[in-house]
Specification:
- The protein is α+β, with helices and mostly antiparallel strands and 416 residues long.
- The chain has three domains: 47 residues, no CATH class; 95 residues, Immunoglobulins (Immunoglobulin-like, Sandwich); 249 residues, Purple Acid Phosphatase, chain A, domain 2 (4-Layer Sandwich).
- Helix content is 24%, strand content 31%.
- Strands 1, 2, 3, 6, 7, 8 and 9 form a seven-stranded antiparallel β-sheet that branches. A six-stranded mixed β-sheet has the order 12-11-10-19-20-21. Strands 13-14-15-16-18-17 form a six-stranded mixed β-sheet, with no helix packed on it.
Length: 416
């Protein structure tokens, strides 16, 4: 992490001009200098192309629904952005963000919700951004318009009786792992990806999000398959943690939420930090105990909903498992808050990460449900979790980064 930050600081200094430029350091020299200090190819190019208007990321899909999809992307300069989308054989339609009568503009982070879509339907789309050179009260000047390649997504079908997903956890700022782990899926179809916490060591800046999550995911799947993202304990750390929500959009735009896919009712929980709120590491800025307690009250309600009761399977996704993860405060408080609700409302499975030790833990005296724990960030410890469900069974397969299956669990549907 420290090498990454130092390289970013150097490249920013180069591209910012000032003293080095005045000393006769041309853009060509800047690239050579960046290369000398060990900058990555992307950072070398950014030193030379700082003034070229460009997309910073591909578009990535968020908050999938039967009738809508959110698309987010970034540019390196303020812009006015919109999306064109269409079904096969239909005319192109346009969507842009309008807030209180104003079309969103003069921003570099672009978030557009496409609504009014047809359930279970494939759509093609491309994004557009027009550079804003001047943005004054009575004067606007525009520059070049960028247009992406064409991507494709499919809306959720609420009457489908089957579903499939991939689950990743504990990547810890190793962006190459996204592609390597997704590749373990082979050609099996999947509907979406769930990121189950600790994608980072801590949050530093926007560029870290772009380089270590957004671009790696978009290059592999996220321009065409949506992902959901719940925090792990490492997402609560660092100077940029308060801005994290700006770049992602979960269902209901909440850090914890529910959703149904096929015969499965899912609950996604935010398990918070792993140490007590009064621990010296937090400098008095942590209040995760009341946050978890609030979730527990909400959890008890949503598991009694009609949607949950009619589901063939009830699955909880949370970063810190309530058992099999030591005796740190985060684990024990998750156990105290959530486990009684899991038992009372008959949760069928919990899928977690956090421990960096993969395992399939069978039901036992203190938890009547299986707990699936994904692996850690290092080569040889990483895992991909594949979940598929239909009316006959819900199957979880855990694949190690060697390609070997290291865990499996099969649930039969609950009786009506």
């Amino acid at each position: 992490m420290s090498d990454y930050l130092e390289r970013r600081k150097f490249v920013k200094m180069l591209s910012g001009g000032s003293a080095l430029t005045l000393a006769g350091l041309t853009m060509g020299n800047a690239v050579q200098a960046a290369e000398t200090l060990g900058a990555s190819p992307t950072e070398k190019q950014s030193a030379a192309d700082e003034n070229v208007y460009a997309f910073t990321t591909k578009p990535y899909l968020q908050n999938p629904a039967a009738d809508g999809m959110t698309v987010i992307w970034l540019t390196n300069k303020p812009s006015h952005s919109w999306i064109e989308y269409w079904r096969e054989g239909d005319k192109e339609r346009k969507s842009e963000t309008i807030t209180n009568g104003m079309v969103m503009a003069n921003n570099t982070l672009h978030r557009i919700r496409i609504e009014g879509l047809k359930a279970g339907t494939a759509y093609s789309y491309r994004v557009h951004s027009k550079e804003i050179k001047t943005f004054q009260a009575y004067k606007k000047e525009f520059g070049e318009t960028l247009t992406s390649e064409t991507f494709r997504f499919e809306t959720h079908n609420p009457v489908s009786d089957n579903m499939s997903m991939l689950i990743l956890n504990d990547i810890h700022d190793r962006p190459h792992s996204f592609g390597q782990l997704e590749k373990l899926n082979g050609n099996d179809p999947y509907d979406f990806v769930f990121l189950n916490g600790d994608m980072f060591d801590y949050q530093t800046d926007e560029q870290q999000l772009v380089n270590h999550l957004i671009n790696p995911c978009s290059d592999v799947f996220a321009a065409n398959k949506p992902f959901m993202f719940v925090r792990g304990n490492h997402e609560t750390r660092g100077p940029f943690t308060y801005q994290l929500d700006n770049y992602f959009e979960n269902i209901d735009r909440q850090p914890y939420f529910t959703f149904s896919r096929g015969p499965v009712f899912f609950v996604a929980l935010d398990s918070g930090e792993d140490k007590p709120d009064d621990h010296e590491a937090y400098y008095g800025l942590a209040a995760f105990d009341p946050f978890r307690e609030k979730q527990a009250r909400w959890l008890n309600e949503v598991l009694q909903s009609k949607e949950a009761r009619k589901a063939a399977y009830r699955v909880v996704l949370m970063h810190i498992p309530p058992f099999h993860s030591g005796d740190w405060h985060g684990t024990l408080h998750c156990r105290k808050c959530f486990s009684p609700v899991f038992e009372k409302q008959k949760v069928d499975m919990v899928i977690s990460g956090h421990t960096h030790r993969y395992g399939v833990h069978q039901p036992q005296a203190d938890h009547s449900y299986p707990i699936i724990i994904g692996g850690g960030p290092k080569e040889g410890a990483r895992t991909l979790i594949k979940l598929k469900a239909d009316k006959k069974a819900l199957t979880v397969n855990m694949i190690a980064d060697s390609g070997q299956q290291v865990g499996e669990y099969v649930l039969k549907p609950r009786k009506a």
